[in-house]
UniProtKB/TrEMBL annotation:
Transmembrane feature ranges: 69-95
Keywords: Membrane, Transmembrane, Transmembrane helix
Superkingdom: Eukaryota
Name this polypeptide is given: ATP-grasp domain-containing protein
């Protein structure tokens, strides 16, 4: 198959997949909530079903209400602690700057740019705002309408905040509003923090307003938004990837020769919903058949069957310009602390240079325990949360605008492990009987770096947790705005 025809096929596949998700009905969300209830802690499940019989409220709806109210109470209990931390930060920061005669204002920049950053409720967007602001640039922040109360809008680094419609549900309105913001604010550069296939269309629209977009070309993003296309493209470059197969029907899975364990997951990337990943085959043939029959697989929504590799997983963030890596961070899965992995770096450098990439890349790797080789699992064209590890690096902004420099920036050796305080406090409650886990959580809280808290920018820490999430959770008690969720994601600022 030619590269051109393959590009069109993958592009059509992505558009069809997006259409399937946009047309997701309330009944599907209701079923998802019911499934989550069935997989929950048995005593809790029995309690919800008993209350459902007594009150005649459907169990899936009652489950949503109870989870939402519990989360509201937990954030309420945290409020006095976070308020105290914020007040102490403001007082100590003021007197320290007064004593040392320092100013929290950034130095003037003769080549100052006006930068538009999307995904405003995410921690990674906040950190990019702070980095560009400290370098003397002016920041305009935007996000979806539902996130209009994100605490990040009150950051010292944000000049103005706007909301826009959902890119996936109202794409034309999204394009129009973003173009109007660019024109009104005289934006020089647009940096999207979260993946949206609509952002590819913005490249032409924003060019008429003399605004560039820091985003890969459309022929590059197609291969990144489809996992199987990425695997095939990467294999053609002689780079290591796991053995993978594209699955378009349940019959293919049922008839597949499972010579080893395989990971089964959606082949297309959806930034709005968490993926269901399973390992096949299961312990018994009947269980395998049962799992497969639950999957909604079709040519419009294919799955990827990928050989299971046992080993340490790593996630990386790459900022690339014209085939050169400008920012690089690599951390073991879910740790958010940079480690030196030369082989992963070499893999990324070869990939970026060969394809002459420009933009953000979020790449997942695994080092196989069997052959100790580095394998790429997937690649996405957005800012990875690992970029937060650059929180104390003064040269992040320069990596985006000093194109002639060949210097690659990695997090400073003094950068501490990143964590989100509500999540760590919840881990303390969950593991109250495990002394080892409690000590580990306390060490992270004491010696790590809270992701949102900043010495010179304290308000987002308080307002994001106790205004933004309070609004999302309170709105979730009303059927018009109901969103069945598995957990509160402090990093992304959303209910997932």
């Amino acid at each position: 198959m030619s590269t051109r025809s393959e590009l069109h096929k993958v592009q059509d596949l992505n558009e069809l997949h997006q259409h399937v998700y946009d047309s997701m009905t309330f009944s599907a969300l209701r079923q998802q909530s019911q499934d989550n209830l069935e997989q929950s802690w048995p005593p809790y499940r029995r309690l919800i079903k008993t209350l459902s019989q007594l009150t005649h409220i459907p169990s899936y709806l009652l489950n949503n209400y109870v989870r939402t109210i519990v989360c509201l109470l937990l954030f309420g209990l945290m409020f006095p602690l976070n308020l105290l931390i914020t007040l102490l930060t403001m007082i100590l920061s003021y007197f320290c700057n007064l004593i040392h005669k320092k100013s929290s204002l950034p130095s003037s920049n003769p080549s100052r740019k006006r930068i538009l950053i999307s995904g405003g409720s995410t921690t990674k967007a906040l950190h990019l705002c702070r980095s560009f602001y400290q370098a003397g640039h002016q920041i305009i922040l935007v996000d979806e309408s539902i996130n209009w109360l994100t605490g990040h809008r009150w950051s010292n680094s944000v000049e103005r905040f706007y909301v826009h419609p959902s890119p996936s549900k109202e794409s034309d309105a999204y394009l129009t509003i973003l173009a109007n913001i660019v024109r009104r604010e005289k934006i020089n550069v647009f940096i999207p923090c979260c993946h949206s296939h609509i952002d590819e269309r913005l490249q032409v629209a924003l060019a008429t307003h003399n605004c560039s977009i820091f985003y890969p070309r459309s022929d590059q993003t197609i291969f990144m938004s489809n996992k199987y296309a990425f695997i095939e493209r990467t294999r053609s470059l002689n780079l290591s990837v796991p053995s993978s197969f594209l699955i378009t029907s349940r019959e293919q899975l049922l008839q597949f020769n499972y010579d080893c364990s395989y990971i089964c997951k959606p082949a297309t990337i959806d930034s709005l919903h968490h993926e269901k990943t399973i390992i096949l085959p299961r312990s018994t043939p009947s269980e395998t058949i049962e799992y497969i029959n639950k999957l909604s697989i079709s040519e419009h929504r294919p799955y990827l069957l990928q050989k299971f590799l046992s080993g340490q997983e790593y996630s990386t963030h790459v900022t690339a310009i014209d085939g050169r890596i400008k920012l690089f961070v690599c951390s073991p899965k879910s740790t958010y602390q940079h480690v030196d992995q030369p082989r992963i770096l070499q893999w990324c450098m070869q990939y970026v240079e060969t394809l002459n990439l420009t933009g953000h890349l979020s790449m997942k790797f695994i080092i196989d325990d069997h052959d100790e080789q580095v394998y790429a699992i997937e690649c996405r064209s957005y800012v990875d949360s690992n970029i937060i590890s650059f929180y104390n690096h003064p040269e992040v902004a320069n990596a985006y605008f000093e194109h002639e420099s060949s210097t690659m920036i990695v997090p400073l050796a003094s950068a501490r492990q990143i964590y989100w305080l509500p999540y760590e406090l919840w881990q303390l409650v969950q593991n109250i009987r495990s002394r080892k886990k409690i000590i580990a959580c306390l060490k992270k809280i004491c010696f790590g770096k809270e992701a949102i808290w900043s010495w010179n920018d304290p308000f987002p820490f308080l307002l994001h947790y106790h205004i933004h999430f309070f609004y999302l959770l309170f709105a979730n008690l009303f059927s018009k705005h109901i969103r069945f969720f598995n957990h509160v994601d402090c990093n992304m600022g959303r209910l997932f």
